[in-house]
Specification:
The protein is mainly beta. It is 4% helix and 44% strand. It is built from two helices and 33 strands.
């Protein structure tokens, strides 16, 4: 049988014909990760993120090379034939320098019909040994959120299509093996070295994609939200900018309690009528796992800003009413920062201009930048999700760059998000 296959191969090559061999020629499909970061592929059913495509009239059509035999037209009339349960969707991690492979049996699945029903079924054709096919690999460089990988690098989960990058490689069954993997761009030290459309320099290589990074994605768990103030006389409202408003009040911080990841702070001050107490509340939803120590009973000055946008961006600043020392500051910073350096003195905040990473989602390609916090003669540069401390005078402050990024182009409502917060930790 092997002699017959080799003879057929030689005759096909010499004649130039594309004829189906009497037996199919299996092909090894091998994924090689030549990058410096893990890649993640669809591991459901052993796919490895691979898809085989056939050229039909100048158009590429994919077929399911792992189709269940019960879908074959020769088997659909057999009512006892059942396909195994597909099981849970799986993600396969392929580490830097690692390979993963599976086999295509060399049979093309084409659409057919059977007398047993109106639904289509699959006919089989042994692929001509010299016919060009296209192998497509789709992968993700971002670790799927919540995925827990076992020792084999497999986890339950789904690869987000919007975050996927795809690459192709042409082959013929007579090649016996086809290798495919992420392509690394030309070497670079800065964006100026990259000449391709949309290319940026990440990890010393030019790319239009987004290399793996650990920057947290803004969502329901990792988010900074300042709610609209609950004002029962404590705050005085005034205009801020063209469409915005601000609320200012001075009085006692009476309580600070957590409800899940939300910090609810209550304030009070005497009213103009004897015995009258004016109150107000501010709620800040913090990123998961972040806790701010707040001491109650102090006399504080509170500022809350609201830009008045359809999707409002708010900020809150709490200072010691006697010393004007900053105790807590948080800014959602959607579009622009709300709190100014003058209001934050002696602190200032600036955003870097060189992207340190990116991610692709339904709104487009989002570039990430570091934030620099300065105060007391020192400075601290933090990438998104990073935390750090600065000592200013006799006090220590803790800073968090919640996220700092903007979309290159987008049709979404918010194109720029750089939320941050910091607070006083200790006084020696």
């Amino acid at each position: 049988m092997r002699f017959l296959s080799v003879t057929f191969l030689m005759m096909a090559v010499i004649s130039g014909c594309r004829c189906s061999p009497p037996t199919p020629q299996p092909v090894t499909l091998r994924v090689i990760n030549t990058t410096r970061s893990p890649i993640y592929v669809d591991g459901s059913g052993g796919k490895l993120g691979l898809k085989i495509q056939r050229d039909v009239g100048g158009q590429l059509f994919a077929f399911d090379d792992l189709a269940c035999e019960c879908r074959f037209c020769t088997n659909v009339c057999n009512t006892s034939c059942t396909c195994p349960d597909a099981g849970l969707p799986l993600v396969r991690r392929i580490d830097p320098g690692a390979t993963a492979e599976r086999e295509w049996n060399g049979v093309v699945q084409t659409t057919g019909y059977s007398n047993c029903g109106t639904d289509s079924c699959l006919d089989q054709q042994n692929a001509p040994l010299n016919e060009p096919f296209t192998l497509e690999l789709c992968f993700n460089v971002q670790r799927p959120q919540g995925a827990r990988f076992d020792d084999a690098g497999v986890a339950e989960g789904v690869i987000p299509i919007l975050n996927s990058t795809c690459t192709t490689r042409q082959f013929a069954p007579q090649d016996l093996v086809v290798e495919i993997g992420p392509t690394r761009g030309s070497a670079c030290t800065s964006n100026a070295d990259c000449k391709g459309t949309g290319e940026l320099c990440f990890d010393n290589a030019c790319t239009t994609g987004c290399p793996a990074n650990e920057f947290p994605q803004l969502g329901s768990e990792w988010v900074l939200l300042v709610a609209s103030v609950d004002n029962m006389g404590f705050f005085e409202q005034s205009a801020r900018g063209t469409d915005g408003k601000q609320f200012v009040g001075t009085g006692t911080l009476t309580s600070a309690v957590y409800q899940s990841s939300s910090l609810l702070m209550s304030f009070s001050r005497p009213g103009t009528v004897p015995g009258e107490v004016l109150t107000g509340r501010v709620q800040v939803k913090l990123p998961a796992g972040v806790g701010v120590p707040i001491t109650t009973g102090n006399i504080v000055k509170v500022l809350v800003t609201d830009d008045g946008a359809d999707v409002p961006s708010r900020a809150v600043l709490i200072e010691d009413a006697t010393t004007s020392e900053v105790l807590f500051a948080a800014d959602m910073a959607q579009g622009v920062r709300a709190l100014t350096d003058m209001e934050l003195a002696p602190f200032s905040i600036s955003s870097g201009s060189t992207a340190v990473g990116c991610t692709q989602d339904g709104c487009g390609r989002k570039l990430f930048f570091p934030l620099t916090f300065t105060g007391g003669g020192g400075s601290l540069e933090l990438v998104p999700g990073q935390q750090g401390d600065l000592t200013v005078g006799a006090a220590r402050y803790h800073f968090l760059n919640v996220s700092s990024g903007r979309y290159e182009t987008t049709t979404c409502d918010i194109s720029d998000q750089r939320p941050w917060l910091f607070w006083k930790v200790t006084t020696p």
